[in-house]
Amino acid sequence: MVKNEAFVFLKPHAVTEKAKEEVKRFLASKDIKITKEGSISAAEIDQKKLIDQHYYAIASKATLLQPSQLNIPKDKFKDFFNADFDTLLAEGKIMNAADACTKLAVDAQGLDALWAAAKKAKKLIKFGGGFYCGLVEPGGDKEPIYTFNGFFMEMRSKFVAPGTEIYYYLVEFESKQVPWKTFRGDILGPTDPADAPADSLRGLFYNNWQSFDLKFQPNTGDNAVHASASPFEALAERMNWLEQGPASDNFGKQLLSVATEEQVKCWSVDPQVTFGPMPITQSLFDTLEDADTDMCLALCQMIAIGSPKDTAAAGGA
User: Fold this and answer.
1) Which terminus of the chain, N or C, has less C-beta within 10 A?
2) DSSP for 45-77?
3) In Å, what is the CA distance from 313 to each residue of 71, 272, 296, 300?
4) Are 35 and 198 in contact (CB under 8 A)?
């Protein structure tokens, strides 16, 4: 049986010597073994767009893709903004968030403020999960522009600020002793650290942040520590952050026995997948969340095969 393997990292604001040592002590106390650890600098994160890939569903609209590459519901855009998408695109008035920063000569915080103003003025529309478009109006002699997921640049800036880094741990644990759901819910703790049990890792950092030399008390966005939501997400994160191929570890090798390398690559950006004897369609990451390795592999095999009535849907293709 392949062990559960997860990717854990301290977020930039929580990378201190005391926090790093506490993670090691805490995981060992929970029978979770660290097999590798190390740091990744902000310069590398920025250059290789590692944080963009990590938050692909959000970042693809903000930094990785151009508006012409996005699946825009143009009728919805026109109804909301009373303007034609293609015309505005041709006029250079629609751009992703990274280009918007350059065009408007603002930094991530500046764009975030403009985005907040657009939201307050009700000039922001949601197209789908993690997919927003807003009309940002800088004022002065600068023309308003339409952009996507403008909030992401401020999120991204925390990971690429000069002099910062993440500190990661590759960990493994037995599913019978530590089920994945327990690993995330009880050991790591919920996303909002204020709701985390005091004896969870996030709860520990939330309640004792000063003693670990953290820069500020963790919150929902900066909750000190990240951990993979499933064995597959852990593989996708290792592929991204450590630039490993899927065949480089035990879970990846097992996965390649039930899915192709092309499918694995496609799945790593969380597509919608259709599968099952009574076909359902949903996010791949949501489907696999909190599954232990054996169940995760079984679900991946089902997804790879796809619906019996529509095998073309396998892997979200």
Assistant:
1) N
2) HHHTTHHHHHTHHHHIIIIIS-GGGS---HHHH
3) 18, 10, 19, 13
4) no
pLDDT tens per residue, range 99-122:
999 999 999 999 999 999 999 999
Q: How far is CA 300 from the centre of its chain?
A: 20
For residues 186 and 184, what is the distance between their CA atoms, to the nearest angstrom? 6
- Partnered with residue 227 across adjacent β-strands are 8
Buried b (16+ CB within 10 A) or exposed e, 91-110: eebbbbbbbbbebbebebeb
Using a 10 angstrom Cβ sphere, with 0-12 exposed, 13-18 middle and 19 or more buried, the burial of residue 62 is buried
Band the pLDDT of 276: cuts 50, 70, 90. confident
In this structure, which topology does domain 4-50+159-230+237-243 adopt according to CATH? Answer: Alpha-Beta Plaits (3.30.70)
Q: What angle, rounded to 10 degrees, do the helices at 152-160 and 108-120 form?
A: 160
Measured CA to CA, the distance from residue 242 to residue 236 in angstroms comes to 10
Q: What is the DSSP string of 201-244?
A: HHHHHHHTTTTTT-SS---SSS-SEEE-SSHHHHHHHHHHHS--
CA atoms within 13 A on the CB side of 127: 21
pTM over 0.85: yes
